[in-house]
Design goal:
The chain is built from twelve helices and eight strands. The protein is α/β, with parallel strands linked by helices and 251 residues long. The chain has one domain: Aldolase class I (TIM Barrel, Alpha-Beta Barrel), CATH 3.20.20. It is globular. The N and C termini lie close together (11 Å). The chain binds 3-hydroxypyruvic acid. 3-hydroxypyruvic acid (3PY) binds next to strand 8.
């Protein structure tokens, strides 16, 4: 692809701070010569340790969510300002697990995306269809709707800091991966949707990752596709050698 690839680990609810330090200490030397951008998105309580463990390395740190308000009565939530002040650079938004289990909607994903951008964070906005939706042949409608709603009022300038992750919900944590052709088809459709909403230059520049059981065995083929500019990696990001192999495939 014409764009520099971005490989991001999504640790989900895994690793204590002590374990996070160990894992990052194992990852950083393995990926130091990476030809792509490398990110670890970690649980909130691991952020401080993760930032310390990756200081002076090429590994960047992301959070797995953030709230849209600056502060206030939102027990259990974390603001963009809190993340920014720590030195966090990225934030995963709208992951299907948040949509499925925690009532996240396109409206709240959009609010979080706008807030993250305003704070100078780079959102990794996740979209993807359910198995049922794919079977009903409405994948493109679903994806177009998510892209339009999630990026509502995001300016062309702000879009430069947005990463999109295409994660078919049926391929998440199931061990099922989209074929490289399926991934390419939807990533290419996402780019065309961005071209319609913004313009071709904006579409050509935006990074679109594939996510959903990408691992060291299938990364090569997925990343060989023109419109797949990287990966959002679940389980395989928790094993240093596997994660490093994916980074190498993207370099
Ligand atoms: C997966 O690989 O299962 C993911 O959800 C990555 O975000």
């Amino acid at each position: 692809s014409k764009r520099k690839a971005i490989i991001a680990g999504n640790w989900k609810m895994n690793k204590t701070p002590k374990e996070a330090k160990e894992l990052l200490n194992a990852i950083t030397p393995l990926v130091k010569d990476a030809g792509c951008e490398v990110i670890a998105c970690v649980p909130y309580v691991d952020l401080a340790t993760a930032l310390e463990a990756t200081e002076g390395t090429n590994v960047k740190i992301g959070a797995e969510n953030c709230h849209w308000a600056e502060s206030g009565a939102f027990t259990g939530e974390i603001s963009t300002g809190m993340l920014k002040e720590m030195g966090v650079e990225y934030v995963v938004l709208g992951h299907s697990e948040r949509r499925q289990y925690f009532g996240e909607t396109d409206e709240t994903v959009n609010k979080r995306t706008k807030a993250a951008l305003a704070a100078g964070l780079k959102p990794i906005v996740c979209v993807g269809e359910l198995l049922w939706e794919r079977e009903c042949d409405i994948t493109e409608e679903v994806i177009a709707r998510q892209i339009k709603l999630d990026l509502f009022n995001v300016t062309e300038e702000e879009l430069k800091n947005v990463v999109i992750a295409y994660e078919p919900v049926w391929a998440i944590g199931t061990g099922k991966t989209a074929t490289a052709d399926q991934a390419e088809e939807v990533c290419s459709f996402i780019r065309a949707t961005i071209a319609k909403l913004y313009n071709q230059a904006a579409a050509d520049a935006v990074t679109i990752q594939y996510g959903g059981s990408m691992n060291d065995g299938n990364a090569d083929e997925l990343l060989s596709k023109t419109n797949v500019d990287g990966g959002l990696i679940g389980g395989a990001s928790l094993v240093a050698e596997k994660f490093a192999a994916i980074v190498k495939a993207a370099s």
